[in-house]
Amino acid sequence: MNDWKFIEKDKENEKPRINRLKEIRIGLGLTITALSKAANVSTKVISQTERMLTQPTQVTKHKIIKGLNAQQRSNEKQWKFIDVFPNDEE
Questions:
Q1: Where are the beta strands (DSSP E) in 3-83?
Q2: Residue 1: pLDDT above 70?
Q3: Please, is 18 exposed, middle or buried when counting C-beta atoms within 10 Å of its C-beta (0-12, 13-18, 19+)?
Q4: What are φ and ψ of residue 88, in 5° steps?
Q5: Strongest mean pLDDT among 6-20, 39-53, 73-87
């Protein structure tokens, strides 16, 4: 019984995993397919990242951000790592 309480306490102290990828992608008018092509990652990775089913590598996250920024006009805000993945350290 004590082990179970210990596990629950550890889960309570974890930061919730969140990302703003889907919100930003939709705001830019991009489909998952369009972003996957721009970021050079699979549609599966984009979809699973948005739904927080997997935790992609830092390299993959940077590719996604690069893909988002490739869709921006030169005078528009460029997305930063913390904008898309606020709980992750770069």
A1: none
A2: no
A3: exposed
A4: -95, 150
A5: 39-53
- Per residue, the 3-state secondary structure of the chain, as one string, reads CHHHHHHHHHHHHCCCCCCCHHHHHHHCCCCHHHHHHHHCCCHHHHHHHHCCCCCCCHHHHHHHHHHHHHCCCCCCCCCCHHHHCCCCCC
**Helices and strands per DSSP (H, E), number in the chain:** 6, 0
Cα–Cα distance between 47 and 31 in angstroms, integer? Answer: 10
At residue 2, does pLDDT exceed 50?
A: no
Angle among Cα 19, 25, 29 to the nearest 5 degrees reads 160
Decide: 17 and 48 in contact? Cβ < 8 Å: no
Q: Whose CA is closest to 45, among 30, 31, 60?
A: 60
